Amino acid sequence: MQDLLAALKAVAEPTRLRLLALCARGELTVSELTGILGQSQPRVSRHLKVLLEAGLLDRFREQNWVYYRVPLKGSGASRARQLLSLLPSGDPVMSLDWLRLDQVLADRLENLPVARSGDDEPGAHGVAGVDARILSALGGEPLGDLLDIGTGSGRMLRLLADRTDTAVGIDISRDMLLLARSNLRSAGMDHLTVRQGNMYQLKFANAAFHTVTVDQVLFQAEQPECVLAEAARVLKPGGRLLLVEYLTGQGGADSTDAPPQCPITESALAQWLERAGFIQEASERIAASPWPLVLTVSRRRHAADVAAA
Ligand SMILES: C[S@@+](CC[C@H](N)C(=O)[O-])C[C@H]1O[C@@H](n2cnc3c(N)ncnc32)[C@H](O)[C@@H]1O
């Protein structure tokens, strides 16, 4: 009862209710929230503190910025969603907040070269039908909690969003994270999140995820094998890894690009997966340019399997 009372007290104030509603639709900094609400920064910070203490908000740092959002899971997440479901639709104050939120998100992208290039979405495979093959390779098994490593524009998160309990994408590039956040917001996928992180040193506990995806990331990596070892570490035993990768060491006929430092072949990939503790369950090659793509689904061995191997 105490937790419920703390939550009810926290939202029983107009600015805090508006803040909660905004942070349920996006990951926002104090200065962005200040701009939307038209209130002073100290005042907004004080209200955010109350919501944090009541467990209705989470905060995380990205370089010099601190973001606030409704928690992804746990009692705070469900309580916040329950309270927000009581908000009347069409409320004039909230309607104006949504308009300003859209403007803030548009402003974020204004100076982002990756969003203004006018090219196809960065990260698209350039071959029709790959998304359908990904969905079919994963089959009907639930995806649970998912991590997308090197998420870029958040394409994989959006493709699999409906099938996950929670999903987080990590990327080293802040520009890509801003683009991904904007894409997730436009798609109304507020239960997903992206965080800055290095794929060689993931800031997640061992066995934290049921599914890990890595899409077109290894071919540019200096140490692809280390990325797979990190993926194995954060996967639960029996969890699955979906890999979509260019076979840069298997020169496509029209390959004019020089292979990167660490060329990828199907046999090298099989060895890395084996050494990282995976059993490959499915693998298919897809003709693509400038190199062929390989799509594999592998399962992390259980400890007993590792001991027996
Ligand atoms: C070719 S993009 C693929 C994006 C996405 N997976 C997709 O398929 O749409 C590779 C991504 O890996 C990210 N990346 C590169 N090095 C990284 C690192 N050390 N840690 C995390 N992400 C990294 C890049 O910023 C980039 O967004």
Description:
The chain has 309 residues and is of the alpha/beta class. It has two domains: 2-110, Orthogonal Bundle (Arc Repressor Mutant, subunit A), CATH 1.10.10; 130-308, Vaccinia Virus protein VP39 (Rossmann fold), CATH 3.40.50.150. Helix content is 42%, strand content 21%. It has 13 helices and ten strands. The strands form two sheets. It has a seven-stranded mixed beta sheet with strand order 6-5-4-7-8-10-9, with helices on both faces. Helix 9 links the parallel strand 4 (145-149) and strand 5 (166-171). The longest helix is centred in the first third of the chain and has 19 residues, at 92-110. The radius of gyration is 21 Å and the shape is elongated. The mean pLDDT is 90. The structure holds S-adenosylmethionine. Residues 123, 150-153, 155-156, 170-173, 176, 198-200, 215-217 line the site of S-adenosylmethionine.
Number of separate strands: 10
Task: Provide the helix percentage.
Answer: 40-55%
Give the percentage of residues in beta strands: 15-25%
Largest sheet: 7 strands, mixed
- The CATH H-level superfamily of the largest domain is Vaccinia Virus protein VP39
CATH architecture of the largest domain: 3-Layer(aba) Sandwich
Task: Identify the notable features of this structure and list them briefly.
single chain; 309 residues; alpha/beta; Rossmann fold; 2 domains; 7-stranded mixed β-sheet; 3-stranded antiparallel β-sheet
Q: Any chance you could write out the topology, listing elements then pairs?
A:
Layout: H1 2-11, H2 14-23, E1 28-29, H3 30-37, H4 41-53, E2 58-62, E3 65-69, H5 75-84, H6 92-110, H7 113-116, H8 130-138, E4 145-149, H9 155-160, E5 166-171, H10 174-186, E6 192-196, E7 209-215, H11 224-234, E8 235-246, H12 266-276, E9 278-286, E10 293-300, H13 303-308
Parallel strand pairs: 4-5, 4-7, 5-6, 7-8
Antiparallel strand pairs: 1-3, 2-3, 8-10, 9-10
Helix pairs in contact: 2-4, 3-6, 11-12
S-adenosylmethionine binds next to helix 9 and strand 5.
